[in-house]
């Protein structure tokens, strides 16, 4: 059973939407005044709880889509370390410990370094970014994330000329992650990007959502968000970032190489071997009989990212 603690209830949930939007405008004002990120000071000490992490919206990537209700964002999840059903992560992640937390950065970098979570919270000004998220399974959400471009962290560690790819290794703690008992994939869950993808301003080092720190089920305390790729590329609860010369084999590539490739760019024209990717169901919005939405190439971010794949056959590099 899912027990909701008071800390899980954020203003955006208990205030009617127009007021939430006003709050967003207010924050925009704060950004214009150069106040930078506000909030992010308090950090709950008990495992599983979230605290305020409010940041001014970055409207450079603004989209018109309606936000997916927080309730859906935090109860309909894929996080196999906590179980295979969509409700499992919210139900089974309460014992997962996210503090203290460190992310070690190693490999082909001039300045290898271990960041504490508090350092990551301060490495660059936090922004709110509303992104579409498209799962390879055919559903999508629109989520107000809090974080900053991964490029900030990458620049801080000074990649060498041999750093062609960036690998993201996530937590695998058998004591607090009951899903590790099932061998669906080889743990830990590993994902990777080409370095230019990782450096792209859209690629978000993510520390919160809906104005609070990340709930455990969404990848606390730090995760990746790559909005133009299928959701599985966005690894949760990252513990290690490794810069390498050769293309890494991700956990999903090892598990089912014919179904999950390295690139995984959202593409309605390239079906999964077992289903079409032409349409999607928007979680929380569509009624049972509502028509599905057309899936957009690069999840609608083509103007920003298509140039990364110029000259590449996107059927071959799926
Ligand atoms: N460590 C880890 N990261 C993960 C997953 C996972 O099972 N384990 N699932 C992925 C998939 S398939 C999706 S769709 C997104 C879901 O993110 P959300 O639950 O925050 O919406 O997380 C991705 N990151
Ligand atoms: Mo997914």
Task: Write structural notes for this entry.
The chain has a single domain, classed as Oxidoreductase, molybdopterin-binding domain (Sulfite Oxidase, Chain A, domain 2, Alpha-Beta Complex), CATH 3.90.420. It has helices at residues 11-14, 17-32, 70-73, 88-92, 117-122, 151-157, 195-199, 251-255, 302-305; strands at residues 102-107, 113-116, 127-134, 139-149, 165-170, 190-194, 204-209, 212-213, 223-225, 238-244, 279-282, 293-294. With 318 residues, it is of the alpha+beta class. A hairpin with a 2-residue loop joins strand 7 (204-209) and strand 8 (212-213). Residues 1-47 have low confidence and may be disordered. The structure holds the ligand Nc1nc2c(c(=O)[nH]1)N[C@H]1C(S)=C(S)[C@@H](COP(=O)(O)O)O[C@H]1N2 and molybdenum atom. Molybdenum atom binds at residues 78, 135-137, 231-232.
CATH homologous superfamily heading: Oxidoreductase, molybdopterin-binding domain
- Listing every helix as H and every strand as E from the N terminus to the C terminus, the arrangement reads HHHHEEHEEHEEHEEEEHEEH
The major pleated sheet works out as:
7 strands, mixed
Quote the beta fraction. Answer: 15-25%
Low-confidence stretches: 1-47
Helix content: 10-25%
**Classification by helices and strands:** alpha+beta
- Ligands and ions found: ligand MTE, molybdenum atom
Number of domains: 1
What's the CATH architecture name?
A: Alpha-Beta Complex
Overall shape: globular
The fold-level CATH name is Sulfite Oxidase, Chain A, domain 2
Q: Write down how many β-strands occur, each being a DSSP E stretch of 2 or more residues.
A: 12
Instruction: Enumerate how many helices there are, as a single number.
Output: 9
Through-space gap between termini: 38 Å
Radius of gyration: 19 Å
**The top level CATH class name:** Alpha Beta
Global mean pLDDT:
88
């Amino acid at each position: 059973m899912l027990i909701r603690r008071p800390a899980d209830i954020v203003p955006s949930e208990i205030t009617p939407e127009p007021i939430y939007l006003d709050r967003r405008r207010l924050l925009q004002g704060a950004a214009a005044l150069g106040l930078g990120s506000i909030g992010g000071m308090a950090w709950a000490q008990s495992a599983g709880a979230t605290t305020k992490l409010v940041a001014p919206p970055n409207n450079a990537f603004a989209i018109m889509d309606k936000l997916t209700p927080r309730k859906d964002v935090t109860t309909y999840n894929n996080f196999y370390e906590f179980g295979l059903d969509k409700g499992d992560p919210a139900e089974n992640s309460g014992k997962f410990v996210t503090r203290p937390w460190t992310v070690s950065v190693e490999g082909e970098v001039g300045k290898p370094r271990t960041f504490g979570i508090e350092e990551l919270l301060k490495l660059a000004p936090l922004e709110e970014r509303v992104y579409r998220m498209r799962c390879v399974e055919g559903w999508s959400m629109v989520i107000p994330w809090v974080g900053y471009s991964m490029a900030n962290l990458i620049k801080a560690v000074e990649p060498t000329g041999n750093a062609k790819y960036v690998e993201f290794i996530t937590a695998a703690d058998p004591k607090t992650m009951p899903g590790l008992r099932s061998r669906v994939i080889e743990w830990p869950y590993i994902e990777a990007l080409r370095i230019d993808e990782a450096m792209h301003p859209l690629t978000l080092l993510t520390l919160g959502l809906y104005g609070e720190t990340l709930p455990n089920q969404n990848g606390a305390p730090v995760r990746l968000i790559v909005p133009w790729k299928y959701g599985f590329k966005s690894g949760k609860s990252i513990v290690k970032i490794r810069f390498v010369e050769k293309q890494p084999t991700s956990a999903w590539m090892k598990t089912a190489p014919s179904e999950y490739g390295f690139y995984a760019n959202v593409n309605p024209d390239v079906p999964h071997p077992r289903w079409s990717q032409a349409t999607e169901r928007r979680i929380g919005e569509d009624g049972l009989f509502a028509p599905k939405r057309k899936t957009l190439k690069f999840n609608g971010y083509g103007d920003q990212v298509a140039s990364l794949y110029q000259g590449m056959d996107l059927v071959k590099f799926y």
